[in-house]
Amino acid sequence: MFKHWTNRWDELAVLVDTGAAYLAYLIAVHVYLTWINPRVATVELITFYFSFSPVLLALNWLVLKFNFKGYSRRWNQLPAEARMLVLSNLESTLALALLIFFVKATWFSRLIFVLLPVISLILQLTVHTLTKVGVNRFRLGGMDVRRLIVMGYPKRVKIFARTVDAVPEAGMEVIDRLEIPLGSVEKGHQGIDKLRQLLHSTVVDTVVLALPMADDVMMNAIRMAHQQGKEVRLVLDEVGAFAYKSVLYDFYGNSVLVVNSSRGQQSARQAVKRIMDVLFSFLGIIVTLPIMALVALLIKWDSPDGPVFFVQQRVGLNGRLFPCFKFRTMVPNAESLKEEIAHLNVMSGPVFKVPDDPRVTRIGKFLRKTSLDELPQLLNVLLGHMSLVGPRPALPSEVERYGEDYRKRLSVRPGITCLWQISGRNEIDFEQWMQLDMEYIDSWSLLLDFKILLKTIPAVLQQKGAH
Fold it and tell me: What span, in angstroms and rounded, lies between the C-alpha atoms of 211 and 243?
């Protein structure tokens, strides 16, 4: 019963936040047409805006459902909900901008893109804050208290019980702690017997299992709780430290819990990232096609003996090899000359970089300074080999020398630009470069990608660390 109520609360919370976003849209339109630019407030324009409102309503509902799979009046904290609200508003604003672009709704004011997410976030945060404060005060008065039995690994049972005691506003009370050391069959049987007795003799709302536990003890506890309609929650062991967002699948009768080792592996947001990569790489290819044609002509004029493109095997997602496309910036026999200038390498680790490399052509120097040599990699992005933002694609020979600490770079698609690109490029040593990539993977978000893309433009124009 409690589980069903929790699901109803989830749905209600999504609907309330959707309503707040819809109200924010109406307020933004009213403010724009009444106070900011009343000159354009024709009946036709007002009709356009209000005809568009159901689309916005559906869009916000989808984004909120996408982000808010963990609404809880008891288990979530306000900062976590605030972060999810910020993310959902950014995503809905981006989706709205793309929709406006594709339907060519030129009547839609850009100012509303600024007003809408700000007003929406203020309204939603206000609702969440008032709800949390009101419910917390209600519970501190001894109302809406859920009674818990905490069972499992002794250390985790104690930690979780202390946490519950420290936050009375969560409205939870531990009525008993059943500590079961790993490997103790006798304690396991005693714990199950005690759990059965408690479920029969006292009021219990939730059974909390603190992992690790022996499989037979855990399954018996879960079955017993389910038979009596009790909610079961698991306090994870060390695996939980990696579980940024786990997803449970039924794989032909096998329950498979997917535990992502980083935010960069969250499949749902990776799908959004991939869609953005396809859209922007396709548009980028169209916009830069005249520039690429001119670059190709200049390369043939400057160095007619060699090809226009330099195609090299690089290491991509999870170690997959792919042909990385670049404009050729060196003489045709550059690879055979590499050993002769190996002593000029200025980079630590397995990376090879030579300032004023004698193998670089005249046009090549300009292309490298301006990063125009990397424009063909937009095709790699479109084909799925790369992403717009991600760790730079490495050579197989470099990956062989990574060691265990840095192989995590291969867990995401390599990118055209990254934190290294906007932080000084070749002025950064190998260790710092790898640490920046680890930081990107562990803290990845769509917002971080947009920040890196925006900072890439001035970084390229300043040509800092480019050679």
Answer: 14
- Consecutive 10-residue runs of the chain (467 residues): their mean pLDDT? 48 86 93 90 87 87 73 66 85 85 84 90 92 82 87 93 89 93 91 94 91 92 90 77 59 63 60 87 94 94 90 90 93 76 66 74 88 94 94 89 79 88 74 86 83 84 61
Of 235, 189, 181, 190, nearest in space to 211 by CA: 235
The phi, psi pair for 401, rounded to 5°, reads -105, 10
Contact indicator for 146, 172 with CB cutoff of 8 Å: yes
Q: What is the DSSP letter of 411?
A: G
Distance CA 155, CA 198 (A): 22
Helix (H, G, I), strand (E, B) or coil at 311: strand
Q: How many CB atoms lie within 10 A of CB 144?
A: 12
The answer to whether 350 touches 431, Cβ cutoff 8 Å, is: no
**Residue 231 phi, psi (nearest 5):** -75, 140
Residue type, 290: P
Work out the angle between the directed axes of helices 110-140 and 78-103 (0-180°, nearest 10): 160
Residue 217, pLDDT score: 94
Q: DSSP string covering 199-237, please?
A: HHHS--SEEEEESS--HHHHHHHHHHHHHTT-EEEEE--
pTM of the model: 0.57
pLDDT of residue 5: 39
Say if CB 353 and CB 343 are below 8 A apart: no
The pLDDT value given to residue 391: 92
The number of CA neighbours under 13 Å toward the Cβ of 392 is: 17
- Which residues are CB-contacts of 77 (< 8 A; sequence separation ≥ 6)? none
- Residue 364 CB: number of other CB atoms within 10 A? 23
The answer to whether the CB of 171 falls within 8 A of the CB of 146 is yes
How many C-alpha atoms does 146 have within 13 Å on its Cβ side? Answer: 25
Taking CA atoms, 305 is separated from 166, 240, 394, in Å, by 75, 57, 27
Whole-angstrom Cα distance, residue 31 to residue 3?
42
Q: What is the pLDDT of residue 309?
A: 94
- Write the DSSP string, 321-381: EEEEEEE--B-TTTGGGGGGGGGG---STT----TT-TTB-HHHHHHHHHTGGGTTHHHHH
Record the tokens describing residue 24, joined without a space.
Answer: 């924010």
The confidence score (pLDDT) of residue 8 equals: 61
Q: Match 């291969």 to its residue by tokens.
A: 410
Long-range contacts of 70-74 (CB under 8 A, 24+ apart): 71/9, 71/10, 71/13, 71/14, 72/6, 72/9, 72/10, 73/9, 73/131, 73/135, 74/146, 74/170, 74/171, 74/172
**Does an H or E element contain 249, and which?**
strand 247-251
